[in-house]
Amino acid sequence: MLIDRLLFADKTPLVLKKALDVQSERQLLISSNISNIDTPGYKATDIDFKGALRDALGAGDSLAMRTTHSSHIGPNKADIKGLQADIFTESDVAKSNGNNVNIDKEMMKLSENQISYNATIQMMAKRGSTIRAAITENPQG
């Protein structure tokens, strides 16, 4: 149906869903870092979702496009669906017990991740209200 293709053919919902998935996973990693603050030898971990998303959508700071049809242009949906954020170990200096968890840094990341998660939810809600407004022909409020 034409309305389905017009409203749901773009990659925005897929990117937003993937962002929520990664932000949830990052929340768990940060919580694990905080809970292991006194564990000897524990190394803090984090996720680089921005880099993984940049790689899926294009190369570097520029957006590389791929055409699948002469009238279409955009990144491949399979690249976004298969997107996996890389978990890496923080390179902070370790304490005498080998643990490198910095509580101030972890609390900052926790706050930043929560703000990003809430912003993504708001974008999804706004998209839903835009689609609802288009279907019902009511202005958005």
3D structure, described in words:
The protein has one domain (2-136). The protein has a two-stranded antiparallel sheet with strand order 1-2. The two termini are 28 Å apart. With 141 residues, it is mainly alpha-helical. Helix content is 56%, strand content 6%. The mean pLDDT is 80. The chain is elongated, with a radius of gyration of 20 Å. The protein contains five helices and two strands, in the order H-H-E-H-H-E-H.
- Mean pLDDT equals 80
Approximate strand percentage = 5-15%
Extract low-pLDDT stretches: none
Specify the number of helices: 5
Q: How big is the Rg?
A: 20 Å
The number of strands is 2
Task: Tell me the span between the first and last alpha carbons.
Answer: 28 Å
> What is the total domain count?
1
Bin the helical content: 55-70%
Biggest pleated-sheet summary: 2 strands, antiparallel
Structural class: mainly alpha
**Order of secondary-structure elements:** HHEHHEH
Spatial strand sequence of the major β-sheet? 1-2
